[in-house]
Specification:
The chain has 330 residues and is an alpha+beta fold. It has one domain: Double-stranded beta-helix. Helix content is 24%, strand content 23%. Strands 1, 2, 3, 4, 5, 6, 14 and 16 form an 8-stranded mixed beta sheet that branches. Strands 13-7-15 form a 3-stranded antiparallel beta sheet. Strands 9-8-12 form a 3-stranded antiparallel beta sheet. The structure holds succinic acid (SIN). Succinic acid binds next to β15 and β16.
Length: 330
């Protein structure tokens, strides 16, 4: 059974009774408990033996204590870490004595490391360690990550996850926020879930102006040829957990396939506003020597851009992607 919000069980509020669908405000202003399950019904809750897990919210985000991830990790510890990532979607490791190579070693435990697709096209520039994306942000090079997104959702195979290492953190500010898009799906009104379950949406990197601004016209042309818009199911069923998650985001999703622009905009707005509810969020306050890994399928993230003129430098390694599959393998 999927949990539902109170308003959904009770049917639409009286003032919208004549409307065909709940509107964004019906969903956004629904009050009452928003309590999602941390695990899908297919997963069993078990204790962890190899480290201590400190959940930060009921469904998303946990700090892992008692592990140095730069060293050798046994198969049993890795299996437990995989289980913990399925359970909490974002894992945080504090006080890590880890360099770039250790970062790479740890990331490669989760699957093939994936260069950012654009970096691959630029590989002729001679950059040798393009598997690590260094995000340097300061007053002359502002942030572009302060919008909710899944990394590279515009790719046929969006990355399954990423490992982010704090290289230089501002004294205050520069937090990263994640949302649990499985909890968001579960707590949508039943009528909205029925409306979106079989639908697909288009994702296009050119939707984000900042991407284009940092490219030459020649690069834009070449990259568009290599990475044209793609279509993904709006609801991705994660094979390992059976969890259904919402897979549309403000940066890259352009439209819902088969709907008119107005209806598509209305439905996407409703989903975006719902996804952003604080009950689904986890906020990480970075400290030096902190590393975080997230599941890029079951979460969206947002890097808070409140720290200028301080600098913020992060190293990100992405884990190779898979093609999203909708409900029932469709
Ligand atoms: C990202 O958007 O992948 C980076 C997040 C961050 O810098 O906190």
């Amino acid at each position: 059974m999927q949990p539902t919000i109170r308003e959904a069980d009770a049917g639409p509020p009286a003032h919208t009774a004549s409307k065909m669908h709940p509107t964004a405000s019906d969903v956004l202003y629904a009050s009452g408990p928003l309590v999602a399950a941390r695990l899908s019904e297919h997963m069993e809750r078990r204790d962890y033996q190899g480290f201590t897990v400190h959940p930060v919210t009921p469904t998303i985000g946990a700090e892992i204590e008692g592990l140095q991830i730069g060293g050798e990790l046994s198969e049993s510890v890795l299996a437990e870490l995989r289980r913990a990532l399925h359970e909490f979607k974002v894992l945080v490791f504090r006080d890590q004595d880890i360099d770039r190579d250790g970062h790479r070693r740890f990331a490669s435990c989760w699957g093939p490391i994936e260069r950012h697709p654009f970096t691959s096209l630029k590989a002729s520039s001679g950059q040798t360690d393009a598997d690590v994306a260094t995000l340097v942000r300061h007053t002359q090079r502002g942030a572009i990550e302060n919008n909710w997104h899944n990394d590279v959702s515009w790719h046929e195979r969006p990355s399954v996850g990423a490992v982010l290492r704090a290289v230089e953190v501002p004294a205050v500010g520069g937090d990263t926020l994640w949302v649990d898009t499985g909890a968001a799906y579960d707590l949508l009104p039943e009528s909205v879930r029925q409306r979106i379950d079989g639908l697909w949406a288009e994702h296009d990197w050119r939707q984000t102006e900042e991407f284009g601004q940092r490219m030459t016209p020649d690069e834009i042309g070449r990259f568009h040829q290599a990475f044209p818009p793609v279509e993904h199911p709006i609801v991705w069923e994660i094979p390992e957990t059976g969890r259904r998650v919402l897979f549309v985001n403000t940066i890259f999703t352009t439209r819902i396939i088969g709907l008119g622009q107005e209806e598509s905009d209305e439905l996407l707005t409703l989903l975006y506003r719902h996804i952003r509810r604080p009950e689904f969020q986890f906020r990480l306050r970075w400290r030096p020597d902190t590393v975080a890994i997230w599941d890029n399928r079951s979460t969206q993230h947002y890097a808070s851009s409140d720290y200028f003129p301080q600098r913020r430098v992060m190293d990100r390694i992405s884990i190779g992607g898979v093609r999203p599959v909708g409900i029932g393998g469709k």
